[in-house]
Design goal:
By secondary structure, the protein is of the alpha/beta class. It is globular and about 45 Å long. It is built from 10 helices and 8 strands. Helix 6 (103-117) runs parallel beside helix 7 (133-146) and helix 7 (133-146) crosses helix 8 (164-173). The protein has helices at 3-7, 21-34, 46-52, 71-83, 95-99, 103-117, 133-146, 164-173, 189-197, 208-214, and strands spanning 10-13, 38-41, 58-62, 88-92, 121-125, 150-152, 179-183, 202-205.
Length: 221
């Protein structure tokens, strides 16, 4: 697999709390240069990024990174982001609902966000590091039933990141219309290839350019 092919799977990401516009602008320029699948940036930068880089596929995050804001809040975030030019949304589920086994709340929330997104892509971050395998399997069904476009492993801000073992669980239990995204802890070219070959259509990382142009081993996000 060539580097150019790998870049086509990358959501070029910068979600640090201290991110500046100059850093976001550089990220966008790199995304255009290397033809990444998207940039994934904080909501506060979406409007500026889309205004200056109108041809760029702009992704942003909803309920990030903890996921425990209300559905109404997440819906408002999504509506605002879409109005300001976001092409894709990566939402975080409420882990409290998982642990309370109030799974209907999760499905209703994802369904509401997908209704807001319409034809735009919605990715659902389930934050695998906090979940049992049984919970992951249950969430595969919920993500499928809700009509979301992707299931995503991690925020990159939890206690762990993407694991190939989680991708294998996803593959066995998601519906045919749901794609997979890995994020967090993808540190090398080999990691990128392994996740792509495992079936991931997107990989969220801030390190793709350094990995593929210098061979550097750096942390995602």
């Amino acid at each position: 697999m060539t580097d150019n092919e790998i870049f086509g799977y990358i959501d070029h990401t910068l979600l640090r709390a201290t991110s500046t516009w100059e850093e976001i602008k550089k990220l966008c320029e790199e995304a255009l240069e290397y033809k990444t699948a998207s940039v994934c940036i904080p909501p506060s930068f979406v409007k500026s990024a889309k205004t200056i880089f109108p041809d760029l596929n702009v992704c942003t995050v909803i309920g990030f990174p903890l996921g425990y804001s209300t559905t109404e809040t997440k819906t408002f975030e999504a509506k605002t982001a879409l109005a300001e030019g976001a092409d894709e949304l990566d939402m975080v589920i409420n882990q409290g609902d998982v642990k309370s086994k109030t799974f209907d709340n999760i499905e209703k929330e994802i369904t509401a966000l997908k209704k807001e997104a319409g034809s735009k892509i919605l990715k659902v971050i389930i934050e695998c590091c906090y979940l049992t395998d049984e919970e992951k399997i249950k969430l595969c069904a919920i993500v499928t039933n809700s009509g979301a476009d992707y299931i995503k492993t991690s925020t990159g801000f939890g206690t762990g990141g993407a694991l190939l073992s989680d991708i294998e669980i996803f593959k066995k239990h998601i519906g045919k219309n749901v794609k997979m995204k890995a994020a967090g802890g993808v540190k090398t070219r080999e990691d990128l290839i392994n996740f792509i070959e495992a079936g991931c259509m997107r990989i969220g990382t801030s390190s793709a350019v350094s990995i593929l142009t210098t061979g550097a081993k750096t942390n995602t996000y």
